[in-house]
Amino acid sequence: MRKQWLSFLAIAGLLATTACSSQEPAAEAVSEVKQVELAVVKQEQAVKVTELSGTLQPLEEALVSFEVAGRITELAKNEGDTVKRGDILARLDGSDYSLQVASASATVQQTGATLEKVTKGAREQEIEQARLVVEKATIAHQQAEDDFKRIEALYREKAISQSEYETAQNRVNVALTDLQNAQQALSLVTQGARAEDKTLSQASYHQAVIGKELAASTLAKTQLRAPIDGTIIAKLGSAGSLVGVGSPVYRIGQIDTLKVVLPVPDREIFAWTEGEAITLELYGQKREGKVVKIHPAANQSTGTIGVEVQVKNEKHDWFAGQVVKATKTVQGKAGLYVPVEAVISRGQGEAHVFVESAGKAVKTPVTIGEINSNRLEITSGLKEGDRLVVKGVDQLFDGDPIEAAGGQPQ
What's the pLDDT band for 21 if we cut at 50, 70, 90? Predict the structure, then answer.
């Protein structure tokens, strides 16, 4: 049975081969006319529609934090509140800083009194008292000298002892020293303090004043104020918590106008200009924005150049963080452009199309230039007026009979 089945398959294959051979001359004799779509090659202006997207941001934004450390006692604003520059947003416990101000004020008073004293000098009563001391010392010195002269005469006559003589002499020396000290004290109160003492007192006073101002400035920093006009975007702290210097408490942004930075390919940046209008779209809603800035350098990672676009947002119905889309039409150079599906490429720069000539498909090598959306620039191989096969090329061979489906080519 197996041998009979194999013999049957062999005979069937032979009959099929004979049948195909008998039909080949008929196929060669009558070629099928293939239906294709034709288009007339024309000179065109290249148009490229670029779609870009970016994230909306506040026009201006600030993270607000305390410049001093402490415990938060009050947070006056919440998300969504509108604030003006200088408005108080939060407060810290300022007890310790108030004591520093009081201490600095006392130091200013003390150093100020000292400066006033050395500047004005002694009072009349102090000067008069010093003069009286000098007069008293002068009398005492004169009396001591008179006594010494009498004792000296007695000593020469050997009427008194040497010890008494020396005692009288010491009394004169002590009286002279007292007189000199009194005279110096009178000189100090009449001439006033020395220049260096006045300078030192003045410097101490100024240093105390600066210390007071510094303490007052530190106390003022326990009140957190808004640095810009805007809206509270985020509240980042809570009452009762301890915060350090620079710890963010609020995030404020100007959202009456939003901005978006679009990543424009560097090869297309020539088509963008500052001041031009651009349409932004968010979930089907469109608004006109304005190009306000073109960044001066390209992003090394993406090869794009940032273009900043601003858009009005008076109702605050667009939100920072949302992604918008921008569409821009860029005019390119004029040339011959054909649909991508009309070109067959074999790699290594080899490409061809089919051109209709006398009812037949003529295989025509072409050179491809720029790619513009779904159309290719043909730099050589075609000319204006050629009837190009734009659909059905995948079923064609050179010389196949063709006709335009649906009438004349477009």
Answer: very low
